[in-house]
Specification:
By secondary structure, the chain is of the alpha+beta class. It has three domains: 3-63; 65-106 and 142-190, no CATH class; 111-138, no CATH class. It is built from five helices and five strands.
Length: 190
């Protein structure tokens, strides 16, 4: 073994500083781990109270808005989710968007792998791929923010139609991979 590896340090103050900073780092790592765990628990409880407990109570007593301890709480539509990952569900979601007349939300991505020596063929336009004997993969997607905005607007339209007595069908957001419910939105009062 190399004797210099175990030689006493030349600057004892530097080692003491290093030890102090290592201990501080270890304490901070423990704090971050504890706070991460507490945050997960708090987020779960917050989700339950704002999507289940409070909407039920507010509906039962007929209150949609209330101010409490510097926060405005309002019953609102919550739309969360993303375009389905499962290919079968994705095709069904695409069909549902077409049925709703919203297929213009789709972004279409075509992927095709070429061997390295086929660079020129890779540059050919999509219209030439099938005639060249390739079978390109077809994939659709809708950006999550666009999908959420569309769903919120569709929910608003359905609610207006219900109030007017002209609704013909409900909006099935789950077909688009969305979770939709009433939830309480908290905003800090200025």
């Amino acid at each position: 073994m190399d004797e210099e590896q175990f030689a006493p340090p030349k600057n004892h103050n530097a080692i003491a500083l290093l030890r102090d900073k290592l201990e501080e780092g270890a304490k901070l790592a423990a704090l971050v781990n504890r706070l991460d765990t507490e945050l997960k628990v708090a987020k779960s409880a917050y989700h339950t109270i704002r999507t289940e407990t409070l909407p039920e109570i507010m509906r039962d007593i007929g209150v949609e808005k209330m101010r409490v301890t510097g926060w405005d709480a309002e019953l609102d539509d919550l739309v969360e989710g993303s375009w389905p990952k499962d290919p079968v569900a994705r095709v069904a979601a695409e069909s549902y968007l077409k049925e709703l007349g919203a297929s213009d939300l789709l972004t279409i991505k075509v992927n095709l792998e070429f061997p390295r020596d086929h660079v020129d063929r890779a540059r050919e336009a999509m219209t030439l791929l099938r005639t060249a004997g390739f079978t390109p993969a077809y994939e659709t997607s809708v950006h999550h923010a666009t999908l959420k905005a569309f769903a919120k607007e569709r929910l608003r339209m359905v609610q207006e139609a219900l109030r007017a007595g002209t609704a013909t069908a409900a909006f099935a957001g789950e077909k688009l991979g969305l979770f939709i419910c009433k939830a309480v939105k908290f905003k800090k009062v200025k």
